Amino acid sequence: MIVALELGLIYAIMALGVYLTFKILDFPDLTVDGSFTTGAATAAVLITQQVNPLLAMGAAFLVGTLAGLITGLLHAKGNINPLLAGILTMLALYSVNLRIMGNRANAPLLGQETVFTWFSQAGLRGTWGAVIILLICVLIIKFALDWFLSTDMGLALQSTGDNQEMIRSFGVSTDRMKIIGLMLSNGLVALCGSIIAQYQGSADISMGIGLILVGLASVIIGQAIFGTRTVIIATFAVVVGAVLYRLAIQYALTAGLNPNDMRLISAVLVVAALLLPQWKIFRRFSLRRKNKKVENLNKEAAEEAAAEAEEAGKVGHRA
């Protein structure tokens, strides 16, 4: 349970990055599969060079923004299809990641000081204290993202995803907005990769494969439950969706499913997350609950009216 919560909160940072491109910009960015590993590899190599883990995470974020910059330039300045631009960057990052890790497929962190060794030294690793600390960190990132999206630039970013023609008529460069959005998104994804590398004790060349589906599942599950009425609710839904996704994976394994079927389980969860909004199960449940509430209120009003009429009849009879 605690492990699933810890992983869910860490992966929520990645899901917030995916939310920026998938929901805000309406941009199918596959760079995520590569930039996640780039962040993990960068942090792992820097930590083995005795760099402070927090500085290594900052460097991972910057490297991730560079990956997003490349995808943004390919699309905005090279007029390359968004999907293809992301795939090209992802493929290029595979070789870049191998270079970062010294032409090795794995960069171990055994015996190195990481943020999670600090947790262990404080006796917090695997406890509710660690969950609370991770939750506070994720909420800080969430509220920072909420604030950014409420600024003039953030509003222009949202408008770029909603209606490019309209926002261009106000003199805003949609190309610049897309590049900024992709940089911020991949920066968050790389930051998540750097934390996961420290959590599992190594960076691996294949750790980012298929991760875009995990991010999409987190976004869709959360927003199917909580909706997208405001940015604050939408980002909160993304965080909760990431945690629910990890809990679902853990319960599937606890139920006795083979760990080798993890990819199959993930695919089923993603399909379920995509179908839930179409079935409108939560909306129907909410409407049914509202209708029941209205029926109860009408029933109470009718009973009160009947009681008042009966009382009035008694008074008239006495008179």
From TrEMBL:
Keywords per UniProt: Cell membrane, Coiled coil, Membrane, Transmembrane, Transmembrane helix
Compartments in which it is found: Cell membrane
Coiled-coil boundaries: 284-312
Membrane-crossing segments per the record: 7-25, 54-76, 83-102, 122-145, 179-199, 205-226, 231-252, 264-282
Major localisation: membrane
Cleaved signal peptide residues: none
Alphabetical list of CDD domains matching this protein: TM_PBP1_branched-chain-AA_like
Topology in the lipid bilayer: Multi-pass membrane protein
InterPro entries hit by this protein: ABC_transp_permease
Protein name: ABC transporter permease
Source organism: Citricoccus muralis
